[in-house]
Amino acid sequence: MLNPLLDFSGLPRFADIRPEHVAPAIEQLLAEARAARERSNAAPPVWEQFVAPLENANERLGRAWGQVAHLHAVLDSPPLRAAYNAALPRVTQYWTELGQDTLRFEKYKALAASAEYARLSPARRKIVDDALRDFRLGGAELPAALKPRYAAIQDELAALAARFSENLLDATNAFGIVVDEARISGIPADVLAAAREAADKDGRQGWKFTLHMPSYLPVMQYAEDRGLREALYGANSTRASELGRPDWDNTPLIARTLGLRREDAQLLGYPSYAEVSLVPKMARTPAQVLEFLRDLAARARPYAERDLEELKKYSEEQLKIENLEAWDIPFASEKLRARRYAFSDQEVKQYFPEAQVLQGMFGVARQLYQIAISQAQAQAWHEDVRFFEIRGAAGERIGQFYLDLYARESKQGGAWMDGAISRRRLESGFQTPVAYLNCNFSRPVGGKPALFTHDEVITLFHEFGHGLHHLLTRAEELGVSGISGVEWDAVELPSQFMENFCWEWNVLTRMTRHVDSGAPLPRALYDKMLAAKNFQSGLDMLRQIEFALFDMRLHAEFDPSAGRSALELLDEVRREVALIVPPSWTRFPNSFAHIFAGGYAAGYYSYKWAEVLSADAFSAFEELRGADGGVLDAATGARFRDEILAVGGSRPAAESFRAFRGREPRVDALLRHSGMIPA
């Protein structure tokens, strides 16, 4: 088989995939999917003849396109970008056609009303129910005259999302500042080593700093040179805006996207895109979400006010910064934390070399879920990527995943998990699920291993939690396997749940080792970290609520045709909840990829919503804390796996939570973990 994108016999053949493979493979798979759709539409409305054949064809298309989309995100290049963008409209068109297939919709309704439906497994019944919902959201009930317009909207929205992401990546990569020794005071040695390598690579003398997070964040936290911090802050907060290159400006894309989403909703009979977005989620209405966010904001505000007052006082008295600017806040905050708790992120970082962190993280999964994780071999897209497999107690292979940890110019920012292959039952047995775990951490420099900040360790655990959700499923049907079929505002439950273990002494003692001495994390340093855990937690919570309120109001109330900009709405939201307001020239929406190039439109609230669930779920382990202070209770871990991870999307998330916790979720654990009610 010459085209690697058409080879489904095993793992993706990343070493063989070329941009020229994309068009012929996708065209062939689209043709096969359309043929399968015609055949299944002619069959009687029973699962084996109607649902299963097209599901098989769609999976092949999804797996091949998933490989292309993944490479576009992690190894972007002009030829690959061109191939991706050329195929994107064709793929979008197919899924839109499928969602508007009236004959297929009618057959699903017939299946749901038949005696056959009652004989289906609960997982298959949920897939049928979800399909009916998705047909309605996909425009199947629209009059024939309106369907072409709906399809055109989907095509353009997909293209806008891709362009938004590409503009942001290009604008991020374009900035670099090279400085001499006079301007590097305070910046950690490992960050300077990476900056020196970056300058050398460009044939320049000095140290080069960029907007990639492993470079940007340490400068903002530690650089004594206020002008350097201001330069990086200004470049970062105006990325992909009218203040930079015109062809990278996301401003018109934002307006167009919002307008099309509003039109999409109105075509479907909804007053706003937020209403459409919430149909497949746990939250029922925008009003419910707004009430939830505003309640959290009210609880957090007194703590945030205290945080800010302390920071201002410290900055004036100790740092002699009378007017605290946006580019001063990370620097002043780190100084205050170091002074108050007598440690710094850089001190802690020396205890988290990559190999020890991975060993400790895999150990947590082993104790909770009785699984073993070991490195294995597979073709990868970059030399930095590693591959692992998960085996069960009897030695059976359960899942596999790729781990791509380091930042690079060809890779989009942030951290994320995506599925490569989903678990399903085949005639030959079960298809092994495969996941991608992606981060943007600092790579090894100066002959030393990569060192992670504690925040980066938390990020890694977060994505690993998503990965376990995908890989430890026991679902046998694609539509509810792993995270498929899980409500979007519950998807973050397993990921945020895993973050809690990063604060446990019995976990940290096994996942820390000083890069030079080999000593584990000292208890005294851990106690300081724990004392500082909720440092500025009020400000942090208000910041996340600000983003979530902006997103929900943008999609629930905002009309771009009324002459008002998204920035103006953001200003209004900040007046309501924010205590720290950045300069008027910042352009946060232009880099808000979660809602304009990701899946979080009218869904950013999900992080806080799911944090309530995850904190409450973790409290089940805290309630059983052993005599040694540990929380790695295998019996509770088995219940979490059985009731949350294993079921995937085969039942509503609320039912899964109640099955694990024995009751409805409560907000108390989140507030306690955030230091907002007594422990």
Please supply descriptive tags for the structure shown above.
alpha+beta, globular, five-stranded mixed sheet, Glutathione S-transferase Yfyf (Class Pi), Chain A, domain 2, 27 helices, Neurolysin, domain 3, 679 residues, two-stranded antiparallel ribbon
Strand order of the largest sheet: 3-4-5-9-6
What structural category do the secondary elements indicate?
alpha+beta
Q: Note the main sheet.
A: 5 strands, mixed
The first-to-last residue Cα distance is 61 Å
CATH topology of the domain at 248-343 and 536-604: Neurolysin, domain 3
Number of E-state strands: 9
The portion of residues assigned to helices is: 55-70%
Tally of individual helices: 27
Oligomer: single chain
β content, as a range? 5-15%
Overall mean confidence score, pLDDT: 96
CATH architecture tag of the domain at 248-343 and 536-604:
Orthogonal Bundle
Low-confidence stretches: none
